[in-house]
């Protein structure tokens, strides 16, 4: 049924919908985030839930202290290498469908601590991230914006077909390998099936088109 | 609080201890006392308990890595060259052994003075990295000595619970040492510059073969 006809029918007092719309509508407006924070971004996340910014307007006020009851993981803060296996384990313990917001520069790439000895260079090396929020730390408005983006993303997910989300596709993994503590670094240092960085011509960095510095 | 008088006072009260005053040439003039490992606990206990000092609060423990360095010096020698005695310049290389240093900042809450800075040095950076722990004297040093152990590799004898603090137990290196080489994960550096750019290029040529 096309949108035009649907609009016309609704003006006549006939409400039509699809199973997909109902299903996504329910999930979109009741996302329960996992109650955990890692660093300063967590303070902004907490502020977002409080009265001034009030994340409850979007149906996400119920921060669950257990991963078994949560749909959304907000990775808010610096992920140290010592903490990374626990974050992945928490993600694995969440039931499908589950989503990840990577909040702040550190969770995206390691941020200002990227070259440090103890900081993971982005949580997307181990778990799939749906929304990235840049900022150090991002303001609560940015988190709300990311949350609304996630809601749009969930609302558009088809229930069937090749583009259906991971939790409706038996072939896709629901759990991801937890890295182990190695001698010098986490082992493996990344999940190569998951983390495919954009190709950046590093040799060209800092040069203009003719190759001069 | 004059460090000279404190040094004389300690030397008078703890026989045999070897103290060295390390002067700080900067305007702040924060001089410090270098303790010998053998008498460090006795000196620390004295600093804490002496009625005039009462340094009852250790606010900060940190480490410094002094890598060994080679010093080149030119030496003039008289030598036989082609049967003639001539003055020849030779370059001599001497290697100074490195050491690890631990710095404690002490305050007195009771007397409201401080800070007094005391240091200890290890013999070298390989086998002789043992130093006495001052945690029995100042409980606040416990976690910070663990941190120094973790990041610099100083082994504190007498520490009640010497485990790694920031890195995991199976980790072998000491990341704050100057010769620490971090793992080669430079595949994604979108804004690389300076040393990071060099490492990223090296990574590319080694790992990806281009």
Structure description:
With 213 residues, chain A is an alpha/beta fold. Chain A has six helices and five strands. Chain A is globular, with a radius of gyration of 20 Å. The radius of gyration of chain B is 23 Å and the shape is flat. The N and C termini of chain B lie far apart (62 Å). Chain B has a five-stranded mixed sheet, covered by helices on one side. Chain B has a two-stranded antiparallel ribbon with strand order 4-5. The longest helix of chain B is centred in the last third of the chain and has 15 residues, at 194-208. The model of chain B has no long low-confidence stretch (mean pLDDT 88). Chain A binds chain B through residues 80-82, 109, 115, 117-118, 121, 181-185, 189-190, 197-198, 200, 202-203, 205-206, and chain B through 166-173, 175-176, 180, 182-183, 185, 187-193, 196-197, 200-201, 204.
Would you spell out the secondary-structure blueprint of this structure?
The complex is a heterodimer of chains A (213) and B (210).
Chain A: H1 3-11, H2 19-28, H3 41-49, E1 72-76, H4 84-93, E2 99-103, H5 104-109, E3 131-133, H6 140-155, E4 180-181, E5 186-187
Parallel strand pairs in A: 1-2, 2-3
Antiparallel strand pairs in A: 4-5
Helix pairs in contact in A: 2-6, 3-6
Chain B: H1 3-13, E1 20-22, E2 32-35, H2 40-49, E3 57-66, E4 69-81, E5 84-96, E6 99-108, E7 113-121, E8 130-132, H3 141-152, E9 155-157, H4 194-208
Parallel strand pairs in B: 2-7, 8-9
Antiparallel strand pairs in B: 1-2, 3-6, 4-5, 6-7
Care to give the gist of this entry?
The complex is a heterodimer of chains A (213) and B (210). With 213 residues, chain A is of the alpha/beta class.
């Amino acid at each position: 049924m096309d949108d035009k006809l649907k609009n016309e029918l609704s003006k006549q007092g006939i409400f039509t919908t699809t199973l997909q719309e109902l299903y996504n509508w329910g999930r979109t407006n009741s996302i329960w985030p996992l109650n955990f924070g890692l660093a300063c971004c967590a303070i902004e996340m907490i502020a977002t839930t409080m009265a001034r910014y009030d994340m409850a307007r979007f149906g996400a006020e119920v921060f669950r202290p257990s991963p078994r009851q949560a749909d959304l993981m907000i990775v808010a803060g610096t992920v140290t290498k010592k903490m990374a296996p626990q974050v992945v384990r928490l993600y694995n313990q969440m039931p499908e469908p589950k989503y990840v917001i990577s909040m702040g520069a550190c969770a995206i790439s390691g941020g200002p601590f990227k070259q440090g000895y103890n900081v993971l260079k982005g949580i997307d090396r181990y778990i799939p991230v749906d929304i990235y929020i840049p900022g150090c730390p991002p303001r609560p408005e940015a988190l709300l914006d990311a949350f609304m983006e996630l809601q749009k993303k969930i609302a558009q997910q088809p229930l069937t077909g090749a583009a259906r989300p991971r939790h409706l596709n038996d072939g896709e993994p629901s759990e991801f390998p937890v890295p182990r503590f190695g001698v010098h670094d986490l082992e493996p240092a990344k999940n190569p099936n998951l983390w495919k960085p954009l190709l950046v011509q590093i040799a060209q960095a800092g040069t203009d088109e003719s190759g001069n510095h | 609080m004059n460090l000279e008088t404190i040094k004389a006072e300690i030397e008078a009260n703890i026989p045999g201890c070897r103290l060295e005053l390390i002067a700080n040439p900067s305007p702040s003039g924060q001089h410090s006392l270098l303790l010998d490992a053998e008498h460090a606990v006795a000196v620390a206990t004295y600093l804490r308990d002496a009625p005039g000092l009462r340094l009852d609060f250790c606010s900060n423990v940190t480490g410094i890595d002094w890598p060994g360095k080679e010093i080149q010096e030119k030496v003039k020698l008289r030598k036989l060259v082609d049967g003639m005695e001539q003055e020849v310049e030779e370059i001599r290389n001497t290697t100074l052994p490195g050491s690890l240093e631990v710095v404690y900042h002490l305050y007195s809450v009771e007397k409201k003075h401080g800070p007094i800075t005391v240091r200890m040095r290890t013999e070298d950076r390989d086998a002789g990295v043992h130093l006495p722990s001052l945690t029995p004297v100042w409980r606040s040093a416990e976690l910070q000595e663990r941190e120094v152990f973790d990041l610099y590799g100083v082994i504190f004898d007498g520490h009640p619970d010497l485990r790694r603090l920031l890195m995991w137990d199976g980790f072998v290196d000491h990341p704050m040492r100057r010769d620490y080489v971090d793992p080669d994960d430079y595949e994604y550096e979108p804004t690389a510059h300076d040393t990071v750019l060099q490492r990223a290029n090296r990574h590319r040529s080694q790992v990806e073969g281009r």
